Amino acid sequence: MTVALIDSGFGLLSTAGWLRHLAPELDLLLLLDPEGAPWGPKSASFVTDRLLTAAHLAAERGAEAIVVPCNTATVTAIDALRATFEPRIPVIGTVPAVKPAAATGQSLAVWATVRTTASAYQERLIADFASGVPVARVACPGLAEAIDHGDTAAAAEAIADAAERTPRNCDAVVLGCTHYPLVAQQILQSLPAGTTLYDSAEAVARQVLRRTDRTGEAGGGPGSVDVVLSGRPGLLPMAAHAYPVGRALATAARVPREALLSATTRALATAPAI
């Protein structure tokens, strides 16, 4: 069975890693768009066209599920994808983990890209699930781009800037961009001790398994990991090797749990990030 994941850059790595950890027998098709990246500042029509093009290619390659592990792409084009491919092929999007974070009743911050932070989408999410809970909106300019380039110094600078603008009394930080779990260790180190990080990659992976009737953690494998770069077969860019999950996916190995950020965590990641 083939599951396709579509994103402009490395935002798909964490969800792909969870799928590889939970169901290593699956064949994964990773569709990145280095020629069109980053999608964040692009128009809605541009993002929709790139997503639909990649999804049609995934369907031609026999994908039995299509995953959009990108918040911007989900809010922009998930309806168009579902109208085109469902019910024949399930389409699974990504939503920041505001709901479980807010359920604790504690104060929280949402770290996201500049575009997502300013979006009506994020405001609706907060209004729907975090009404009455103190929520700080923290834009993280340049962080996703630094992660895509494997630029340790630039990522550290962006994290330090975001941490400085995060209220010290926040009990939790929601990672509102799918790139950010790749630098979870650095993010946690920048925040007060005891801060909880919330991420959605594990939940998205488990939703994929539910939608494809694979409800248990399977022990088979290994399946293949194929990469498409802006429509052409390729390899994961070398910058992906800066992250444990990227290195594991590049070798089609099963991804160990310690290379992944759990849905919620207060512990520093044991594996180095970048």
From TrEMBL:
Any idea what this protein is called?
A: Glutamate racemase
Give the originating organism. Answer: Kitasatospora aburaviensis
InterPro entries in the cross-refs: Asp/Glu/hydantoin_racemase, Asp/Glu_race, Asp/Glu_racemase_AS_1, Asp/Glu_racemase_AS_2
Q: Please verify whether the record's keywords include Isomerase.
A: yes
Which first-to-last residue range defines the signal peptide? none
Which domain of life, per UniProt?
Bacteria
The record lists the lineage as: Bacteria, Bacillati, Actinomycetota, Actinomycetes, Kitasatosporales
Alphabetized, the UniProt keywords read: Isomerase
Q: Please list every transmembrane segment annotated in the UniProt record, as residue ranges.
A: none
